[in-house]
Amino acid sequence: MSTKQRLLDAAEQLFAxxxxxxxxxxDITALAEANLASVNYHFGSKEAxxxxxxxxxxxxxxxxxxxxxxxxxxxxGDNPVELSKILWAFLAPPFRRMYEWGEGGRHFQQLVGRIYxxxxxxxxxxxxxxxxxxxxRFQSAFHQALPHLSTDELTRRMHHVIAAMAHTxxxxxxFCCLQxxxxxxxxxxxxxxxxxxxxxxxxxxCQPIFPPSSPAVAAATSSGTDR
Length: 227
What we know:
It contains twelve helices and no strands. By secondary structure, it is mostly helical.
């Protein structure tokens, strides 16, 4: 394995386990069995190394997403792409690659979960940059498939789907082992989150579930005030 590859693997693991700020370049080079000069040679800085960690996983992943969406849009012609196909193009690639990546994939899942749970600079900014084109393309496709949703509500629901995906990936195999099915683990989890996302995205424009005059809300409010 090349020095560059070892540095990427080590950085991915340590950023996932300890966070970006708590991981030093010396920690990374020690695990990679390399020297500090090799980091400067291949990446230039700790921030650039983080960007390379993301780029290695996310560039091919997002390219696959966009290629799938391109194919579905070509099939649909002048009609909107079906919601199930949009969600499939967005969700299927990461869940399939999650298992192809092996142990490195587990570290990357943990890193992604960490960033979504507590986004900090520069990790959060570096991560988000990878998704700008994907966000634009998929938001447009969702808007055409779900014309009953306002732009603000559509944006919120996209965030809900992304959050569910990130949380599921961060927990990894814990979600896959809840119930034996005989099907590939990634397929079970993917089908579950697709069903969840379909229902949520299709729901009518957001309305209050408990109006302010609801006895349940009044009782809860009163109980909280009495504490």
